[in-house]
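Lab notebook page, bench 4
Experiment: in silico fold of construct C2
Operator: M.H.
Input chain length: 329 residues
Purpose: comparison with the prior construct
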Amino acid sequence: MQASVSPFVDGRRNPVLAGLILASRQTLRERFLAGATSAGAPTLLLDVLTDSLIDRCAQAAADGDLAALAEWAEETCATRADAPAVHQLFLSVDATLTQTLGAGGLKPFAGRLTSLVERLRARSAAAGTDTVDELDLLLADLVARVEHNDPMTAEHCRAVSAWCARIAHRLSLTRSEASFAARGGLIHDVGKSVTPPEILQAARPLTESEWIVMRDHVVSGHDIVRDNQHLREFAPIVRSHHERFDGRGYPDGLERARVPIAVRIVTVADAFNAMIGRRPYRTPLSPDRAMTELRRCAGTQFDPNVVAALIDVVGANHKPALTDGAVAC
């Protein structure tokens, strides 16, 4: 495609390579997907992961640091033990970059992933029934804590969980991934179990100081979940479900490549159900209005692929006009 550039070297910044990776996004995407889906058609999940992979490769080159890329790739493969196409996507990184840009140097990284995938294939993917039952009891207890503080928030959490399961299925996630997203959606607002009810139930706009308290529910919830070894894997969902696709969310202002797909699913499900659900300070929006808002904010607040999946689930193919009273992105 073009002349060779200096390869990845851990510890050495390479902004030229970073720029070439981003400039070659379309070619890289096609080649990554071709390598990952030799046995079938690409899925929306693979498309999302491929975009994140390209972003993270560029960041690794710019920073001269492969550690974050390797950690994310290994975690992604490990959480998708029953998804060979996902594993193959990562195994093809070194060859694809060399073929496209003449910039290899990731063979040690590829070797680590090969070893991991072999271990995953040899391991039983199914968890024991007792473990699953124990986990569901813990999740139910957290929702009960939320319900004790504010029944409407608990109702919202249950609805978000159901939407997450439907979106995950539409995105062709595996059964375990869909279950993970649904469970994360169930407890995404667990931090509101310690938010003052007078703020949660205020039938008026909140003051700036009250908004600070309200937004703190993501940190409070993260602390609750992080401290339990059985729930720790859900901590990123609880903490990051108000991050934005454009990096302007809270509490950490994460770039989109650092927000896992399960979090993006919960974010869209949370916003949709908040708009169509009962709220003390406004009447519910119609599903059509809510979907219009999601479309309007796709690419800024929300992942466009996840928005498309939810709209497909709802079954609305038309685009009604936006009227007054829109929910701000």
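Observations: The CA atoms of residues 38 and 75 lie 23 Å apart. The chain has two domains: 15-122, 129-314.
Next step: discuss at group meeting.
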